[in-house]
Amino acid sequence: MRDPYEVLGVARSASKDEIKKTYRKLARKFHPDVNPGNADAERRFKEIQSAYAVLSDDAKRRQFDDFGTVDEAEVAARHARSRRRSTGPFPGFDVRGFGGVGDLGSLFGDLFGSFGGRPGPGPTVAAEAQVELDFGQAVHGATVVVPVRHEVACTECAGTGRTASGPCRRCGGTGLLVQTERLRVRLPAGVGDGDRVRAAGKGGDGEVSVSVRVRPDPFFERKGDDIHTVVPVTFAEAYLGAEVEIGTIHGPVRAKIPAGTQSGQRFRLRGKGVRNLRTGTHGDHYYAVHVAVPRVVSPAGREAARRVGELYGVDPRAGLPRSLE
Ligand SMILES: [Zn+2]
Q1: Rounded to an integer, what distance in angstroms lies between the CA atom of residue 296 and that of residue 304?
Q2: Is-contact 153 118, C-beta < 8 A?
Q3: How far does residue 221's CA lie from ligand 1's centre (Å)?
Q4: What is the pLDDT, as a whole number, of residue 117?
Q5: If you measure from the C-alpha of residue 169 to the centroid of ligand 1, how many angstroms do you get, rounded to a whole number?
Q6: Ligand 1 centroid, distance to 24 Cα (angstroms)
Q7: Strand blocks (E) in the chain
Q8: Within 97-144, where are the H helices?
Q9: Among 83, 150, 197, 268, which is most exposed with the fewest C-beta within 10 angstroms?
Q10: Mean pLDDT of 220-226
Q11: Residue 157's closest CA among 117, 112, 103, 97?
């Protein structure tokens, strides 16, 4: 048997809490469900379980600290050699059943929730799921169906990992089975990329944390609760002023562009942004004006452009620094 401290990678002085945390991390990493068909991971997983079985039990940990082993016969022999006592049993040492897989139920109960050893497909625990939404779905809210992986107690062995004829074949001795549940989740309007939404699992058993990804939109850009777009206008519209249609996530809006609008100038439509999840109020819609230039150059256009050029009283680049001072 390997040194359990070494297996978990914790110091001999590690607290129970530290040991528990490390164990959980490692057990999740090397769990057979996460590493299907990986014999190395499975071996490592079993090693981690054995190590934790020793270090999570005060008596067994003390026993290992004192004797470097938890094997009953070996302990007895060393104990005898130490001449503190000639024969067992050793008060405070409860090594019955240890070393087998009988402890797995409680170990998993500890790791994954509360079903420890309870028969049948027990209640599930906090599960995670991911969903990817279109920009519009996120902005307006959507009901989606997400597959949720649950680990439930094995029905064959009631979560103990073993049957009368040895380790349970159905769950590979882990005491756990993976079930996929198709969960309908209502995502509220305004949900954003990277948000997590909590949903109740089926039958109220356990909570599902759904992490949300939102596909970007080529036209509407979201910054917080605000929406940003770019609106191309003609030179005439920018120069003379105009009423143009602005597409927003809540539908088209007629908006005025004042005479003398500059390319890049930004305007705001109040309350036409995204609904805030917490406050329920809406952000704003900002549209930046982009003065589009006709691509085709004609004799008439050339003449018109020359006369437009005369409208500039001053060089538009006057006042720009000529280099970095
Ligand atoms: Zn089983």
Answers
A1: 13
A2: yes
A3: 50
A4: 37
A5: 6
A6: 20
A7: 127-133, 142-153, 162-163, 166-167, 176-187, 196-200, 207-214, 221-223, 226-233, 242-248, 251-257, 266-269, 285-291
A8: 104-112, 135-140
A9: 83
A10: 96
A11: 117
Torsion sign over Cα 139, 143, 144, 148:
positive
Please give the distance, rounded to the nearest whole angstrom, from the Cα atom of residue 148 to the centre of ligand 1. 21
What is the CB neighbour count within 10 angstroms for residue 106? 16
Tell me the CA–centroid distance for residue 25 and ligand 1, in Å: 22
Q: Where are the beta strands (DSSP E) in 134-172?
A: 142-153, 162-163, 166-167
Q: List the domains of the chain with CATH numbers.
A: 4-109 (1.10.287.110), 116-214 (2.60.260.20), 221-309 (2.60.260.20)
- Measured in Å, residue 116 CA sits from the centre of ligand 1 at 13
Distances in whole angstroms, Cα of residue 249 to Cα of each of 131, 216, 218, 219, 220:
21, 13, 13, 10, 8
Note the Cα 134 to chain centre separation in Å: 18
Tell me what pLDDT residue 27 has. 84
CA of 174 relative to ligand 1 center, distance in Å: 7
- Range among 12-16, 75-79, 92-96, 214-218 with highest mean pLDDT value: 214-218
* CA 113 – ligand 1 centroid, Å: 17
Amino acid 80: pLDDT: 53
- Pick from 239, 234, 245: which is nearest to 287 by CA? 245
For residue 169 the two structure tokens come to: 């074949």
156 CA to middle of ligand 1, Å?
5
